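Researcher: If convenient, please comment on what follows.
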Amino acid sequence: MRKRAGLLVAALAMVVAACGGGQTTATGSGPQKGGMLRVVGSGDVDHLDPSSSYTVVAYNLGRTWTRQLVTYPAGSGISVAGTVVPDVAAALPKVSDDGRTYTFTLRPDVMWNTSPPRPVVAADFERGLKRLANPVQPSGGISYYTQTIEGFQEFFTAFQKQPKTAAGMAKFMNSTRIKGVQAVNPTTLKIQLTAPASDFLNIMALGFASAAPVEYEKYVPDGPDFRQNTISAGPYQITTYFAGRQIMLEHNPVWKQSSDPVRHRWVDRILVTLGQDSPDVVQQQLEAGVADLSWDQPVPTSAIPRLTGNPDYKVYEGSTLNPFLAFNMQSPNNNRALANVKVRQAINYVVNKAAIAQIYGGTKINTVLDGAIPPGSIGYDSAVRPYATPGGRGDVNKCKALLAEAGVANLNLQFPYRTNGNHPKVAQSIAGDLTKCGISTQLIPTAPDDFYGRYLSSVQKSREGKWDIGAPGWIPDWYGNNARSIVVPLFDGRNYTEGSTNYGAFNDPAVNDLITRALTAPGVGEAEGLWRQTNARIMADAPIVPLTSQNVPIFHSARVRNALYTPLTQQFDYTQLWLAS
């Protein structure tokens, strides 16, 4: 289990307790079985395949039908959110004295819903790890595994050269081992690390490390055929998937509560209805009781004052870069202007961050950011504020002065934005700020599920200059000693490839070196000092504009009970709640 900075976690736990309780339960009654949970929202998952899923909605959906060796328990506090517990593993793994070898023993009664049903075995987890490195849609979190598991980087590099067909990928996976991963027998998996990593179990608790049945070798990862043929080991199974329209989950008939120490199965069905782009309409449906949970739409800012005090409304503490402004440093547009650090620094000065916070409900529930690591995460340093402006409202004169120093004028930036939630307002606010500094923008409305795959995470589109700036969000995959889940995926330039979350292809050898030193530091204290240095170095080069760290207002219908919020997904855990009759 990873080591944590105790005072930091204690402080965050106190904040969470102040923001809202952990659950809502039925008075005088226990869990009730039955009914259909109705979830409504806007966009589809980025990827349905757990090997490449990297959005909170996909993570929360995956909780219902995928299984991992270890996972995170249900619970609202940040301290709970970072506690790793067994899932398919019968217990936490045995760790060798040198901290490099992890031996997992699997439960024998976790079953795939195949015909006939069969047990989930160690080879399924080995296959799941291999699929992360596929050349068609490699995992956005691939660096977690290439940096920790012996031989994974070599496997990844070799896999990228293979045919991008299902048959070609299956042949490679079946003939090539990851040196540090071995299915010893059906119930024993051994993983060898390159060096001790105190956060390794956190990495293995992510959805990326889900088991993958042999049937998945027939499909291109996350391709249309895959999406129609998912196989479940969790309490629910996907019975209907219409891209961008509807997802239906029903009981997995071979799942047993005795085989799952974390999840439950109180509701009969979960219906996700997509295509509703108005957060106000979603909120109205929740309050009217015609829907139960929002899929991806936020509580409208205008509704927050009247909802305060409502037992179905809570605000939970966050530690996020959400949103932030990413620069496409590869873009050929404007004579490669965004490769110039002074241009990026100029834009850092001009953005009115307080206005962004106001879009999400004001500075009382959103923290204006000036660094690459948010408060509540290791490496945060309140002294690193190189582009701070009074009240976070921006400084047009400093922007103009830096652009003049750079010898750059008449910039016109391609700016795709998501059409759901508050994203249009954020884009319009930033575009207005840039206009004050003489920078024009071409706003490109984009479906939520296309925003990353067709723009920010597409190597080809990035290099072609299909986008110059974009406003993604980032939620760390775990909390406390979690810089690997913030700094590595966003700023480590050594693993930039298709699907990368280092959106602008930032690659600074000094930052890369600091990352390596911090990840292999012998203790949390030394690591924290190195992460602080990393934060300062990143901001000096200005590959992003940090904007806000959002707390999370969330609402559910009056019939939802045992609504346990999970910080990792910023949603309620579907496998824990039940419905009032």
